[in-house]
């Protein structure tokens, strides 16, 4: 772990119209760390993770990703987006492109990688997430779990330094959740820096370095998985954990 | 034993119904249906009988059969007709190549066109316009289709080159048709002499090819963040859509001419093409805009998250999905454009319909045959419109299998 955070957020505020969605978020992530964010619906988890790659614009505070400050400078935004991969709840694969094309499109056109090289890389990544045989299918012909693993491969193909996951398993049937989590656990163990919004507590316990509990746009509590599960400090955290751990 | 039989029965996939069952299920599925079938069946037979009797024996097709060249090219000078033949053969050659490469509907079209040409080439009738030269020309065009097929099927010609051929040949064709000022072998031919199917195709194909990119541009323009661009696009689209095509044709053919100095007058046919293009572009723009709106935001976010810029996102993600979503509407728009070209008669251009009308009006005898002439023209328009809608359906289903949207 280096001494300088790879993601540095201080006092991040975000309003949707009059609605104050993020109310002063301070959060640092160091290289190789796995951060899990959890909290009730509407607490601002997605909003926060999306400000990191500028899918949402924050109005106050400072976000620095790998030394690049997020500002209105389009160059900076594109640089940061090349450094961060994102996996969405709804997969968001491109339905008109094959799995192979989904994965190679951005490396070819954004990173200017030669097509053959991009395709070799894509096959490697598909092996990594366990579905090398699906390369020439279209997303519509894959199961949800397979689609989400393609989405992970697609994000990794850009060789990001940071991976952002926004509830990657909540749109999946229970029997497919494990295959996606396994791919994510492998990735975490390979040393990837990750921010994961999830309520999969098994995943958090296995690989998270720190957990953040969000509620109403603020960080209520933070700690290692052990601290959060065994000894939560705040009443809101206790209540929320008791609710999700019942199921 | 009995159970085993039942099991096998259950396991067998459902069989398609036999002809008797089809008739029972579709024609006699209830009391009312049976009565309707019994009443309508003889009526339809009778109607078909009367129609074929009229077509074969009652009708007088002289006004159609006497002027095949007029219907095809209008008044285009007969001693220069080889230019049209040259283009036609070129297009048939491209059709052959495309058949060899892609098959499918192109195969059906190529075969239909080839058989049609063959039929005319060997037609056992005396006709001044179907002399030996003509028959040999038709025969060699059929050969060109076949040669094209072999080339398309057996060589590694790039798809892009084939598609380019489809654009290059018509462009060479138009230049050739217009002729060259200084040339004696290929003198200029005024567009006032062009007519018939030639002009109809020129306006329809030209209108489709030019209006589509313009429509896409307008659709993006209307969504633009720049108020000038979006304002202009919106006004353009709404004004054009709020006005009948006839008005636009008049505007381009008369008003435009008033503003421009005499010597720089744009050719009449070009003005008609501009009018048709502008009209079709406004409608295409609205279709495409509908498609753009149907692309989920998540698609654009995924592209952004991958670091893709606006241009790449538009070209690779948004536009392909948008066009897929509205392909049927766009083809429908093209079909109406094809039929709408008939309105150019009003500004004095003799397209296919115009030729038919002038034939009817040229002789009191032909006035008696106007029914035949109009029916002939209706059938021709229908054939080409139907081909377009068939093509659209084939493309749709091909895309459906590919992406399973
Ligand atoms: N584009 C938007 N416009 C207006 N309000 C929004 C917008 N996006 C989110 N919000 C609001 O901001 C708040 C935080 O939303 P966010 O999606 O970040 O919640 P979340 O913690 O991810 O919840 P969930 O677990 O349901 O995904 C919610 O109250 C939501 O209604
Ligand atoms: Mg969310």
Note the quaternary state here: heterodimer
Structural class category of chain B: mainly alpha
Residue stretches of chain A low in confidence (pLDDT < 50, at least 5 long) are: none
Q: What are the bound molecules?
A: adenosine-5'-triphosphate, magnesium ion
What proportion strand of chain B?
Answer: under 5%
C-alpha end-to-end distance of chain B:
46 Å
How do the SSEs of chain A run, as a string of H and E? EEEHEEHEHHHEHEHEEHH
Reading the helices and strands of chain B in chain order gives HHHHHHHHHHHHHHHHHH
Structural class of chain A comes to alpha/beta
Strands of chain B, total number: 0
Q: What's the CATH architecture of the largest domain in chain B?
A: Orthogonal Bundle
Domain unit count of chain B: 2
CATH class of the largest domain in chain B: Mainly Alpha
Low-pLDDT stretches of chain B are 401-405
Quick structural summary:
The complex is a heterodimer of chains A (247) and B (405). Chain A contains nine helices and ten strands. In chain A, 39% of the residues lie in helices and 24% in strands.
Write up this protein.
Chain A is of the alpha/beta class and 247 residues long. Helices cover 39% and strands 24% of the residues of chain A. Chain A is built from 9 helices and 10 strands. Chain A has helices spanning 45-52, 74-83, 99-109, 115-128, 144-156, 174-189, 201-207, 225-230, 235-246; strands at 7-16, 19-29, 34-38, 60-65, 68-69, 84-87, 162-166, 193-197, 210-215, 218-223. In chain A, the strands form 2 sheets. In chain A, strands 6-7-8-3-9-10 form a 6-stranded mixed beta sheet, sandwiched between helices. In chain A, strands 2-1-4-5 form a 4-stranded antiparallel beta sheet, with helices on one face. The longest helix of chain A has 16 residues, at 174-189. Chain A is globular, with a radius of gyration of 18 Å. Chain B is an all-alpha fold and 405 residues long. Chain B folds into 2 domains: 78-189, no CATH class; 192-405, MetI-like (MetI-like fold, Orthogonal Bundle). Chain B is 77% helix and 0% strand. Chain B contains 18 helices and no strands. In chain B, helix 6 (82-102) runs antiparallel to helix 7, helix 10 runs antiparallel to helix 16 and helix 16 (352-362) runs antiparallel to helix 18 (370-403). The longest helix of chain B has 34 residues, at 370-403. The chains are: A alpha/beta (247), B mainly alpha (405). At the A-B interface, helix 2, strand 6 and helix 3 of A face helix 14, helix 15 and helix 18 of B. The site of magnesium ion has 4 residues of chain A, from helix 1.
């Amino acid at each position: 772990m280096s001494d300088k955070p790879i993601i540095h957020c201080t006092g991040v505020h975000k309003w949707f119209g009059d609605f104050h969605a993020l109310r002063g978020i301070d959060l640092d992530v160091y290289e190789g760390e796995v951060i899990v964010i959890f909290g009730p619906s509407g607490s601002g988890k997605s909003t926060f993770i999306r400000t990191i790659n500028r899918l949402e614009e924050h109005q106050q505070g400072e976000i620095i990703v790998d030394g690049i400050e997020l500002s209105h400078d389009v160059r900076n935004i594109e640089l940061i987006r090349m450094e961060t991969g994102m996996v969405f709840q709804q997969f968001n694969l491109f339905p008109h492109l094959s799995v192979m094309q989904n994965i190679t499109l951005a490396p070819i056109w954004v990173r200017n990688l030669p097509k053959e090289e991009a395709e070799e890389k894509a096959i490697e990544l598909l092996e990594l997430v366990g579905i090398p045989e699906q390369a020439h299918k279209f997303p519509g012909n894959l199961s949800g779990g397979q689609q989400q693993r393609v989405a992970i491969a697609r994000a990794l193909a850009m060789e990001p330094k940071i991976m952002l996951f926004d509830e990657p398993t909540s749109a999946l049937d229970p029997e497919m959740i494990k295959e996606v989590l396994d791919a994510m656990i492998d990735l975490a163990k390979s040393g990837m820096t990750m921010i994961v919004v999830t309520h999969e507590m098994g995943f958090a316990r296995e690989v998270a370095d720190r957990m953040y509990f969000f509620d109403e746009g603020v960080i209520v509590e933070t700690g290692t998985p052990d601290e959060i599960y065994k000894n939560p400090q705040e009443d809101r955290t206790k209540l929320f954990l008791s609710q999700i751990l019942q199921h | 034993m009995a159970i085993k039989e039942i099991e096998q029965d259950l396991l067998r996939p459902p069989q398609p119904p036999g002809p008797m069952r089809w008739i029972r299920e579709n024609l006699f599925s209830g009391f009312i249906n049976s009565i309707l079938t019994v009443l309508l069946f003889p009526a339809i037979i009778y109607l078909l009988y009367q129609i074929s009797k009229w077509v074969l024996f009652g009708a007088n097709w002289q006004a159609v059969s006497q002027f095949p060249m007029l219907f095809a090219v209008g008044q285009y000078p007969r001693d220069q007709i080889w230019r049209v033949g040259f283009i036609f053969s070129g297009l048939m050659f491209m059709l052959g190549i495309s058949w060899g490469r892609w098959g499918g509907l192109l195969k059906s079209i190529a075969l239909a066109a080839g058989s049609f040409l063959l039929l005319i080439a060997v037609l056992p009738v005396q006709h001044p316009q179907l002399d030996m030269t003509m028959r040999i020309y038709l025969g060699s065009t059929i050969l060109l289709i076949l040669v094209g097929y072999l080339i398309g099927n057996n060589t590694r010609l790039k798809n892009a080159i084939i598609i380019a051929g489809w654009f290059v040949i018509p462009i060479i064709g138009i230049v050739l048709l217009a002729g060259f000022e200084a040339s004696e072998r290929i003198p200029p031919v005024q567009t006032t002499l062009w007519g018939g199917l030639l002009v109809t195709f020129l306006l329809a194909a030209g209108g489709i090819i030019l209006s589509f990119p313009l429509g896409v541009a307008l659709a993006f323009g209307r969504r633009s963040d720049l108020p000038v661009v979006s304002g202009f696009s919106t006004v353009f689209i709404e004004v054009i859509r709020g006005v009948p095509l006839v008005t636009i044709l008049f505007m381009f053919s008369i008003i435009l001419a008033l503003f421009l100095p005499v010597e720089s007058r744009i050719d009449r046919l070009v003005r008609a093409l501009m009018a048709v293009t502008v009209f079709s572009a406004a409608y295409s723009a609205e279709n495409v805009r509908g498609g753009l709106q149907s692309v989920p935001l998540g698609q654009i976010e995924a592209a952004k998250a991958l670091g893709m810029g606006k241009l790449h996102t538009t070209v690779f993600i948004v536009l392909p999905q948008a066009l897929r979503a509205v392909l049927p509407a766009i083809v429908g728009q093209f079909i109406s454009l094809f039929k709408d070209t008939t309105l150019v008669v009003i500004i004095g251009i003799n397209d296919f319909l115009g030729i038919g009308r002038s034939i009817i009006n040229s002789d009191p005898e032909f006035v008696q045959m106007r029914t035949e002439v109009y029916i002939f023209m209706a059938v021709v328009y229908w054939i080409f419109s139907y081909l377009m809608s068939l093509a659209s359906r084939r493309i749709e289903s091909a895309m459906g299998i590919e992406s399973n949207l």
